[in-house]
Amino acid sequence: MKKIVSLAIIFLFLASSIGFVSFSEVSAQSKIRILWFAAYTREGGFTGGITASRLLPNSSILAQYPNFEVTIVTDASNLPSDWYEYDILLIADTGFPENLTEFKGKLLITLDSAIAPFFYWFTGSNQYRVLWDYTSRSPQKWISPYTDIEVVTSGDSVIYKEKIEEISWLKTRFDVAYAVLVENESKITVALFEVNKSNIKFYWLHMGPYDAWHSETPNRQTFLSMELSEIVLKLSAKKKVEYFDYAMMNYIWYMLYNKYTEKFDEMYESVAQYNITNATMPQVREYKSLAEYHYQKGWQYGHPIRGRIQALPHMRRAYINVKKAYVLLDYSLRGLKHWQALEDNDLAALMQQNAENSTLYWIGGPLNGTYNGVSEIEATWSKFFAGTNVIDVGIYNITLAKSEEGMTGIKAIVIVTTQEGKQIPLRYEIYFKGDEIIEEWWTIDLSVLKTISG
Questions:
Q1: Which InterPro entries does this one have (predicted)?
Q2: What are phi and psi of 343, to 5 degrees?
């Protein structure tokens, strides 16, 4: 979550370079004035979070940019009388005590529940459950412009697309920034709008999925506010388009690298608990090592936000390799629990993942056949264990199998070794819906022994 906030802001950063957000008037001034409102107040029709004061810019970062002037408000009574003349106004998950229709700046950013005061001041009511809700939580995805970038795993302050498109004074700029719920694409989680009402004209960026900063971990809060500060700051710079492109791409690779590294580290600990032989692990570690190498090389040119072109190929390779490591690890983990139970000769654990309506396809050997439902499958495995004592299960060449109808499939070469010294070479496929096994294919194939030896 801490990284996706930065990514959402970076679209405004990109927008400024291609003409969507013009700061030409502002750039003539010596300072870019940003008002960072993080004072908890229920004024402005607000209902929501109570911890806005935790989200504050990092002073050590701000000190690096002499042309950036930020006013931080953590007590509503200290709101500047000229608040409406600031170039950028950011409302951090709270209400706002003054009429926002008086804002004369260029960019208004609302985080999470700050959507309430925005609509309160522009329509007279907060219109909760009419234009948006606070309760829609599910996986989200980008529609524009980077469809392969994951947003977060839960959402908040989700806008109803059909309803908000009926508002004549709001023009959607979904070509710049647009994310939705996976399960319901009519619910918007991140979006950019042009506000044009009477003599009121500015850009509004809303970021709904903004719940990670509620974490009790101070370092996470500091990191989040530092990242957000640094990118908003870039709106002040009058640079060439090429600079914006490099900075944007460097930063995207940087964020994705860190996201997948965090996911990889968590998953790696999960895999370590299994004793099973997995020949895929050396390849996983090789990808991870390459990722770390390129990440360090990229940092030789300074922080990615500085947009050094020399860092770009290294940051990209760092992301690509850590994602490869994560994906291979993910494929392994889906089957490891099942295969560990097979190696342990543990019938109860082996059946634990099976859905009630699952199917086992056993191809080759004395148990050849198709078995439907957990009762038939359990009886088949019971027969197998009655005549076989497994001492080792080797897993090789794990890949993603063809997935359809909501199923996620993995396939691997599996060598089962028995106490008697017999090897059972298999092409093994498992298809999941969620965490449950729907289909399992046990296919005996002697040719895989040549594949392994080769």
A1: NTF2-like_dom_sf (IPR032710)
A2: -65, -30
Backbone torsion region of residue 37, taken as left when φ is above 0, otherwise alpha when ψ lies between -120 and 50, otherwise beta: beta
Q: Is the dihedral of CA 238, 244, 248, 250 positive or negative?
A: negative
Amino acid at 144: S
* Exposure letters 402-427 (e unless 16+ CB within 10 A, then b): eeeeebbbbbbbbbbbeeeeeebbbb
Which letter, b or e, does each residue of 77-91 get, where b requires 16 or more Cβ atoms within 10 Å of its Cβ? eebeeebbebbbbbb
- Looking at the domain covering 2-238, what would its CATH class be? alpha beta
Query: For residue range 362-402, what is the model confidence (pLDDT) as tens digits?
Result: 999 999 999 999 999 999 999 999 999 999 998 887 877 77
Report whether pLDDT(28) > 60: no
Residue from 149, 142, 172 nearest 20 by CA? 172
> Is pLDDT of 343 > 90?
yes
pTM of the model: 0.49
> Which CATH number does 344-453 carry?
3.10.450.50
pLDDT at 146: 45
| Tokens (6 digits) for 266 | 């968590």
pLDDT value for 83: 96
Listed in order, the ranges of the chain carrying CATH 3.40.50 are 2-238
Please say whether the beta carbons of 7 and 252 come within 8 A. Answer: yes
Q: Are 132 and 158 in contact (CB under 8 A)?
A: yes
